[in-house]
Write a structure and sequence with these properties.
Oligomer: single chain
Radius of gyration: 44 Å
Structural class: mainly alpha
CATH architecture of one domain: Orthogonal Bundle
Strand content: under 5%
Shape: flat
């Protein structure tokens, strides 16, 4: 056999290769780091008056307390770690009742710790001039008290609070509008009002209602009005004369 015949046989024997679509990578479920739980693990922990799930890490649980943000939570966790030896990356459900009480004491007295004073939310209290940090219900109480003092002194902030307007200079032309929008009518409302007005205008007057006076003061109009009144007065005069007879 010649080389050409061999090449032809080989090409016939070879089957066309079918390109397969690339396989999509399988999405494996992400395994979350679940810490081993102790025997006395608590499902819900009361931290500074706030219910927190026991699976939450301590450094994240601090930021759930009203008045403690993310930045302050980091410094508070370091202070508690230095005083009580509690690991910030441990689950809060593993803490004992004594540990939670000690943590609450620190949270309600943060001004006694080494945290910088500029991180506190109560700067130069108007009552006693002290600098401290308030959380939870104490924070709500002091905020309401400050607003009432602004209203009584009738400052610009108090004026805005009293009338329910925005206090910090935001625009109120488009946003912050309360109640019905003034000067805005939808097309459906306008279309519903037009037929009612047209029907009222074209409605016939009542039976006992007097005839409308013609507009205009030209002599022709006045003559027509007099003729109409005379025509209506003649039958009435004839009826009265017949009754007298």
């Amino acid at each position: 056999m010649s080389t050409k015949e061999k090449d032809d046989k080989e090409t016939k024997e070879k089957k066309p290769e079918v390109k397969q679509a690339p396989k999509k990578p399988e999405h494996k479920p992400v395994k979350k780091d679940v810490l081993p739980q102790k025997e006395n693990f608590k499902g819900i922990v009361r931290l500074a008056g706030k219910d927190v799930p026991g699976q939450v890490l301590f450094k994240h649980a601090l930021s759930r307390v009203r008045g403690i943000g993310q930045n302050l939570a980091v410094s508070v966790a370091s202070v508690i770690h230095s005083k009580l030896g509690i690991d910030p990356s441990s689950q809060i459900g593993d803490f004992s009742d004594e540990q939670i009480e000690q943590i609450d004491k620190i949270l309600f007295n943060l001004h006694e710790t080494n945290i910088p004073k500029f991180m506190f939310n109560r700067q130069n209290d108007p009552m006693d001039g002290t600098v401290r940090h308030t959380i939870m219900n104490d924070l709500l109480f002091y905020v309401k008290q400050d607003i009432e003092n602004e209203k009584k002194s009738y400052t610009w902030k108090g004026y805005r609070h009293a009338y329910g307007q925005k206090v910090r200079g935001q625009r109120t032309r488009n946003t912050g509008r309360t109640g019905m929008a003034v000067g805005v009518l939808r097309k459906s409302i306008i279309a519903a009002q037009q037929p009612q007005g047209a029907a009222a205008a074209t409605a016939a007057p009542a039976a006992g209602a007097p005839a409308a006076k013609p507009a205009g003061g030209s002599p022709a109009v006045k003559a027509a009005a007099k003729a109409a009144t005379a025509a209506t007065a003649a039958p009435k005069a004839a009826a009265k004369s017949a009754e007298k007879k």
